[in-house]
Amino acid sequence: MTSDYARRYAHLVTMPTTVPAYGTEAAERLASMADVTASDSALRRFLHGLPGVDAVGLQARAATLGTRSIKTTAKAYAIDLAISMIDLTTLEGADTPGKVRALCAKGINPDPTDRTVPRVAAICVYGDMVATAKEALRGSGVQVAAVATAFPSGRAALPVKLADTREAVAAGADEIDMVIDRGAFLSGRYLEVFEEIRRVKEACLREDGTAAHLKVIFETGELQTYDNVRRASWLAMLAGADFIKTSTGKVAVNATPPVTLVLLEAVRDFRAATGVQVGVKPAGGIRTSKDAIKYLVMVNETLGEEWLSPEWFRFGASSLLNDLLMQRQKLSTGRYSGPDYVTVD
Amino acid sequence: MPVFEYAPAPESRAVVDIAPSYGLFIDGEFAEAADGKVFKTVSPATEESLSEVAHAGAEDVDRAVRAARKAFGTWSALPGSERAKYLFRIARIIQERSRELAVLESLDNGKPIRESRDADLPLVAAHFFYYAGWADKLAHAGYGPDPRPLGVAGQVIPWNFPLLMLAWKIAPALATGNTVVLKPAETTPLSALFFADICRQAGLPRGVVNIVTGDGSTGAELVAHPGVDKVAFTGSTEVGKAIARTVAGTRKKLTLELGGKAANIVFDDAPIDQAVEGVIGGIFFNQGHVCCAGSRLLVQESVQDELLDALKRRMRTLRVGDPLDKNTDIGAINSAEQLARIRTLADAGEAEGAERWAPECELPSTGYWFAPTLFTGVTQAHRIAREEIFGPVLSVLTFRTPDEAVAKANNTPYGLSAGIWTEKGSRILAMADKLRAGVIWSNTFNTFDPASPFGGYKESGYGREGGRHGLEAYLDV
Amino acid sequence: MSEKSEKHDERLSVLKTYKLFVGGTFPRSESGRVYEVTDSQDRWLANAPLASRKDARDAVVAARKAFGGWSGATAYNRGQILYRIAEMLEGRRDQFGHEVARAEGLSRTKATAAVEAAIDRWVWYAGWTDKIAQVAGGGNPVAGPFFNVSSPEPTGVVAVLAPQESSFLGLVSVIAPVIATGNTAVVVASETSPLPALSLGEVLATSDLPGGVVNVLSGRTAEIAAPLAAHQDVNAIDLTGAGEALAKELEIAAADNLKRVLRPQPVDWAADPGTGRLLAFLETKTVWHPMGV
Fold first, then answer.
1. DSSP code of residue B120
2. Average pLDDT over residues C224-249
């Protein structure tokens, strides 16, 4: 929503169609904006020219949306939608193929007693577990997402990060969740972050010309300010991110409604400016159905139904699924469920 | 049909028990009007009659003032710490009964339950809690070592925030040792009558608070009563002027909180998403029935297109309908009379050449409703830029420079509030300095707090409510 | 001066033509009218301008024009100018002592005491200009992430009906608090004793006080006050110099644009004035801003 921006790219604003960030057309549209990423100073001018975010107003808006009361039919719809948007995640040092297979089974059939429950969107694992997950999910329609680029710290040399990415893609990952170099971002080396994302996006290319979808994690808890989150969002989208994602789930502060709202506003404005649609993924700390529904309300009232699908919105979560399942059981039976009636992973 | 359609989420009416009829609350007891007159109060959302309420005449007002006078001696002689405890009790009981009172307020007023629950009631309790603490600290308030109460306060309040305006009036009056006769608005008498019951539960001595319901004539009787020492009024500027004439030449101390036509000024470097929320909340909060509503949007020409696009997009998400539905953003217009006034002014806006826009929205077939509406191409000469509409209607004007924004913002007989949206700190302070209004919201709007003085410049009235400043209205200083 | 002129061995004195003080200049009444001002023994003192409603209008225009600059001046600057007025008066103590003695029928000692008290009053208010905001304003601890501060601001153009009896100390006591905080004033002098007020204009004109900040009119209080009370560009009115019936009439007229009204009340002009008159013509402005990174 920068005025300069909108004016300068008016020809894009009026483009009749929206294209997905992962399509080939998106790359052409981004290329037409090469001038803002031509140099460190151009990129800085652009990012610092974005409208500021007033923290208090942002938080108040997120809190108000959080008071929406989603009942009965709307709740049933929201629960199933939330389940279908989950990137069911295990990112432990102790992960084993057995653990990953169990999680995959759960992702395909979240509630063994109820086949009407939708499958989750993806199983999210470390790169070395991609092959196992791919095998376990074959034919299910559930995607395999791999964290990459020296997740969660992002502290490794670029060639290592690229190799990390290529390995995962080669092993069959459908989606790559990369982390940005927060150190570079916070010290103002925006072009470096931009280039890194661009290179990782290239590494997502498969030999057959298709590509794994790229989610870019900002670790918003480390970026601290909402202004930084907005700048990171635009930076990542300009660099070709298919999804922008809040957090790794590995630091003290993960996804929050206000931070996610900034991401939602960013993809909304980016589409208005370029016609390129980008997805959003809050991750970490979303554990209850109530929380998940608040996020869906936020998507609904900020972006509308065009983002209300797993193609454009995801939850990075693990324990959330069981709470959604228990709530789903409550809705269908009228009585409260308990943890013995859902599966432990 | 939208894919994510929110199912109805009505707050239960069962939590509030409205009696079929209510008397006047005088000297600790409910009584019929001397002449037996009554009037109905209706739910503006359904036009259903909620209750029948006594209509106080001159005789009843006189009785109420006498009761307050009788109670004044003892009440004002109580140690401040004792008065404080009564007020703390009231604050706590309001918190306990807040759900009930919120539902009642939404029924009688038409405002969304989300607002009565999350804004009105918390502020009501906070106001009593705040002034409770002042009761035994008046010697430290900067009004001399032993400031004295005035006596009997005659208070007349409006229908837009019935219980909150009651709190703004009664809490400081009682804390300072005055007794009160309060006249709630004709269309929203119920929460004041429930408050009478709270006074009973709190054990407040009889006659300290008296509630006389009725219409404008009741208010006029109260204001003119020679036994009243202090008049406090919140409402229209027109009535405020009439009251000022009535009390002329008397010893009655007068404070007035009247109309407004606030400018909400958006610069091109504003935090745009929050500015949109501030503009939306500024005019659509409480259906725009807010004296300090940001009813004039002054937008810098360089960002008007994108701001208007964003406003329209946001207005499309506003949910108009059942005030008791927890997801409702805009409830019912308070009365048929007010609806007619809003329609007249909106029609005048169109007739004078401004461009009218409203999102598609289905309005209920019974009750009083008005869709959130935006006028563009408005100039200072248009009626909708000058007159207080007191409804969900936003007039959009533009400016090019800060000086022009100030000139336009101040170009009104009113001066209650103003909004500034820019990320530049020094500009905020310079603008705040130049705007002639009692409350300046910068990068926020419609925020309220019992500790924060509220009140207007010019024809928006005089005197302040809230904070240390709010004590002055009830002290002989 | 008349007693002096009787002694033919002394020179004939030069009489002063008393004029209004409007917008920093000394016009005659636009009406061309004057009225006879006498001392307490009914002896002729001077012909004072008999100001009309048009003079009142012109004075309001001048006061409004001066308001932006005066209210926008720093409090320190206003304080220095008020102090300068005291300095200028100090040098004219004898002149004012003489005028006040004749106007109020006081002994020279009492008149001098009144003038000295008036000079001290300017000094008192000169010191208030940069302190009243701290006394009357301050931060408010609101329950939320907001910076919230209240500060007093001048009301605007204030019509001041100076007290009828105390032609100089009373006059200064009602003007100084009005302008100390940044208001501008249209002053209606004591009807029977306007000369000290008109002479004060001469002092104000040479004290760095911007033209229009104080405007002094002489004449019939009721005649001048009526258009001032009804004037839509006057923000407040001090009714000190009005009798009961007139005060009520003016208060009713003042309601048309909701002027702030200071009702007449008994005042001991020699006593400590307190802050009441400063506060009567101030508006509290409260500014909110979010606190967030």
1. I
2. 98
Q: Contacts of residue C288 in chain B, CB cutoff 8 Å?
A: 439-442, 444, 447, 452
Residue pair B449/C143 in contact (Cβ under 8 Å)? The answer is: yes
Give the residue carrying structure tokens 């002329």: B248
- Domains of chain B, start order: 13-258+457-474 (3.40.605.10), 263-442 (3.40.309.10)
pLDDT digits 0-9 by tens, C46-62: 999 999 999 999 999 99
Of C255, C261, C289, the CB nearest to B442: C289
Residue B439 to chain A, least CA–CA distance (Å): 18
CA distance C149 to chain A (A): 18
Give ipTM to 2 decimals: 0.97
Question: For residue A325, is it within any domain?
Answer: yes
Q: List the one residue out of A226, A291, A228, A231 whose CA is nearest residue A261.
A: A226
Question: Quick one: what percent of chain B has pLDDT higher than 70?
Answer: 100
CB of C283 closer than 8 Å to CB of C153: yes
How many residue contacts between A and B have a Cβ separation below 8 Å? 81
Please indicate, yes or no, if residue A293 is contained in any of the structural domains: yes
The domain in which residue A222 lies consists of: 19-334
Q: How many domains does chain A have?
A: 1
Closest residue, chain A, to C291 (C-alpha)? A56
pLDDT band at B46 (very low <50, low <70, confident <90, very high): very high
A8 found inside a domain: no
What are the two backbone dihedrals, phi and then psi, of residue C119, each rounded to the nearest 5 degrees? -65, -45
Burial zone of A216 (CB within 10 Å; 0-12 exposed, 13-18 middle, 19+ buried): buried
* CATH for C15-290 (3.40.720.10, 1.10.3430.10, 3.40.605.10, 3.40.190.10): 3.40.605.10
Contact B49, B40 (CB under 8 A): yes
* Helical ranges in B225-265 per DSSP H: 237-247
The overall longest dimension of chain B from CA atoms, in Å, is 67
For the segment A224-244, what is each residue's pLDDT rounded down to a tens digit?
999 999 999 999 999 999 999
Largest Cα–Cα distance in chain A? Answer: 60
Contact A55 C146 (CB under 8 A): no
Chain A residues whose CB is inside 8 A of the B327 CB are 68-69
**Model-level pTM?**
0.96
CB contact under 8 A, C255 and B237: no
Q: CB B452 to CB C256 under 8 A?
A: no
Instruction: Measure the CA–CA gap between A305 and B1, rounded to whole angstroms.
Output: 11
Structure tokens at B471: 């004590």
